[in-house]
Amino acid sequence: MAIYLGFDLGTQGLAAIAIEVEGERRRVVFQRSLDFDAEFPRYGTDHGVLPREDPLVAESSPLLWAEALDRMMGLIATEGGFDLARVRAVAGSAQQHGSVYLNHTAGGTLAGLDPGQPLEAQLHGIFTRKASPIWMDSSTAKQCAEITRALGGAEAVARLTGSRAFERFTGPQIRKFEQYDPAAYRRTTTIHLASSYLASLLAGRRAPIEPGDGAGMTLMDLARKAWAPAALAATAPDLAQKLPPLVASDTVVGSLSPYWVRRYGFPEAAVVAWSGDNPCSLIGTGLVAEGAIAISLGTSDTLFGPMEVPRTDPSLAGSVFGSPTGAYMGLVCFKNGSLARERVRDAHRMDWPAFSRALRETKPGNGGALMLPWFEPEITPDVPHAGVRRFGLDAGDGPANVRAVVEAQMMALANHARWMGVSVRELRATGGAAANREILQVMADVFGAPVRQLKVGNSACLGAALRAWHADELAQGRKPAWPDVVAGFVEPEEPAIRPAPDRAALYDEMREVYAAAEAHALGKGPHPGEALAQFRSRFGTLR
Ligand code: XUL
Fold first, then answer.
1. pLDDT surpasses 90 at 493
2. Which residue has the higher pLDDT, 159 or 421?
3. Do the beta carbons of residue 151 and residue 157 sit within 8 Å?
């Protein structure tokens, strides 16, 4: 029976999954994750991010990612519990936007890796930039403004690429690199995304980029799924020569290189183009047709759903990426996800059970106490400098702060997803915090819709494995329909977490108050004091 492998390079760790498929028989046979801070302490990362003085800069190490991939392949070989010869194809998911910069020696090094030596030890000479900027970086406001100006304004950029120029997107990051270290930029022969870099390590050659992840670069013409010459010209010189080609998401880009075959005994299985974690999660949550949305509660909180034709967000807060199905996906991304929840948990010396208890023991609406949870600069809305705001909320009141951070996150998700125009009948929840039913209860109440957990918690990793299978079927001349590919893996768990009917009016009103507080904090509206007082007079007694 065939086995397909999926990897997920997250911000804080690397995960892998193996699925077994034959006809109607589908099951997960192996799942494992490696935490960067705990398992690879010599890199000195904090939650997967290298220490930096400038709070706007966020970088990680491409060597760490390679070492984690090597360790994971070894674990699959020794602890997978299946005959490696059964592995037919491998695909991956990676945190989006992050980039890796290689010199002219990379091709030869990757093709000639010595299976007797660890991978990481052989890669030191291939980089023109030691650290990789990642999606949490918000240091490129200047470059975003320059690119936006050159392309005729933010609306024009969004029309062309699916998103306005965001600071974390790869194009502005490349421009910054070229401006700060033009000599190293000139020495760079290939600029990879984290996804295409890891696919290259597996295939032993330069792997292409696919449109799901390519759309997060401010460099791709979304409608044509091709590099946009005007965007490349607005970003950095000679960029066209440095970018790998764009290929369809279901492309087999090579096979596992001799390194993996000889070092661990893998077969020459197909390596399928890697994609971003959000596009892979779309598949792993079973969202292969328009009309439903999922929320991923991970290092970033994201809300996403499939789109047949791209509709861009008039407020320019959201993004449109390619879907691995060949269609599109809408996405809203929040930087203050799990790390903000952790900050509140830690500030009040709680563990996760105590955090959940705090949610159970506090009342919906929090008696009109409100938080803007900007522990880090925020992506949605655009908040360039960190700063938590509290309205009627005592910073020392642990349980109230727990409810405030979760209610704020859910209201922000709901408010900023309106542009996608999807009437939410049901939500699928994924990511680490989706295991927490109390958090999902707040989600259900705020959205006024049932929330379903999924059997496989890491939907990005599962989505990668399903993409491997789908591409392998195509390569053999079959035409598997996406609903058949995901069937048996993505059915939500029963029972759903249902919204309490008496909370609908409360959260409808509270979402308006939250929007007013947000607008005020951004200098776009009056103090929400009056709106809050009205809300408290109607719902405050619930405390
Ligand atoms: C999406 C985004 C994050 C990263 C990390 O635009 O920046 O979701 O993909 O998960």
1. no
2. 159
3. yes
Residue in this structure with the two tokens 């075959």, named with its chain if needed: 261
Tell me what the mean pLDDT of segment 205-215 comes to. 98
Pocket probe for ligand 1: among 8, 60, 278, the residue whose CB has the most ligand atoms within 8 Å is 278
The band of 191, judged by pLDDT with boundaries at 50, 70 and 90, is very high
DSSP state of 358: H
Q: Where does residue 533 rank: exposed (0-12), middle (13-18), buried (19+ CB within 10 A)?
A: middle
What token pair was written down for 462?
A: 């599962």
Q: Measuring from each residue's beta carbon to the nearest atom of ligand 1, which residues come in under 6 Å? A: 11, 95-97, 135, 168, 216, 276-278, 298, 300, 302, 331, 333
283-292: per-residue pLDDT in tens? 999 999 888 8
Distance from the CA of 261 to the center of ligand 1, in angstroms?
32
Whole-number Cα distances in Å, 63 to 32, 101, 279, 433 = 20, 12, 24, 28
Nearest atom, ligand 1, residue 135 CA: 7
Which of 49, 60, 97, 461 is the pocket-test mutation for ligand 1 (most atoms within 8 Å of CB)? 97
Distance 299 CA to ligand 1 centre (A): 9
User: Rounded distance, CA 367 to CA 167, Å?
Assistant: 36
Residue 451 has pLDDT above 90, yes or no: yes
In this structure, the number of other CB atoms found within 10 A of the CB of residue 30 comes to 17
Is the pLDDT at 542 greater than 70? The verdict is no
Tell me how far the alpha carbon of residue 267 is from its chain's centroid. Answer: 30
State the CB neighbour count (10 A cutoff) for residue 258. Answer: 15
How many other CB atoms are found less than 10 A from the CB of residue 508?
11
Give distance in angstroms: CA of 298 to centre of ligand 1. 9
Reported confidence tier of residue 541, pLDDT bands at 50, 70, 90:
low
537 C-alpha to center of ligand 1: Å? 39
Instruction: Please state, in angstroms and rounded to a whole number, the distance separating the CA atoms of residues 417 and 433.
Output: 20
* Whole-number pLDDT of residue 543: 46
Span 236-263, mean pLDDT?
98
**Residue 289: predicted pLDDT:** 87
